[in-house]
Amino acid sequence: MWWGIAAWPVDDFIQSNDFTGKTVIPFCTSASSGLGESGTLLAEMAGTGDWLEGQRFSSAVSEADVQSWLDGLDL
Ligand SMILES: Cc1cc2nc3c(=O)[nH]c(=O)nc-3n(C[C@H](O)[C@H](O)[C@H](O)COP(=O)(O)O)c2cc1C
Predict the structure, then answer these.
(1) Which end of the chain is more exposed for a tag (fewer CB within 10 A), N or C?
(2) Number of folded domains in the chain?
């Protein structure tokens, strides 16, 4: 997260890809900010894809915690 939204280098990734037919679950790290509107803004920018509620982790999150979240998504 940068200044309360997705770090802007992410914008290039969003704009360079077609998410048609894909489920997208944004996730991020931040010092303290929550996701806020960042997921909604990315979904609007993408214009394609089925965007689900995202997840924020602290910047010191462990790989195991991220893996645990992924496992719990039951994808
Ligand atoms: C330009 C910039 C803006 C940032 N803005 C926020 C912010 O608004 N809220 C927040 O919680 N963290 C903010 N951060 C902290 C980053 O989210 C944090 O650096 C990132 O999660 C990676 O963690 P790390 O630096 O410990 O590796 C910002 C960092 C940078 C470089």
Answers:
(1) C
(2) 1
CA of 17 from ligand 1 middle (Å) equals: 24
CA of 6 to the centre of ligand 1 (A): 10
Question: Is residue 49 situated within a structural domain?
Answer: yes
Ligand 1 residue neighbourhood (C-beta within 6 Å)? 1-4, 29-33, 59
Q: Ligand 1, closest atom to CA 4?
A: 8
pLDDT attached to residue 74: 82
Q: Considering Cα of 9, then 29, then 70, then 66, what sign does the dihedral take?
A: positive
68 in a structural domain: yes
In the three-class reduction of DSSP (H, G, I as helix; E, B as strand; rest coil), residue 7 is classed as: coil
Q: Show the domain range for 64.
A: 9-72
CB atoms within 10 A of CB 26: 20
Confidence bin at 7 (pLDDT 50/70/90): very high
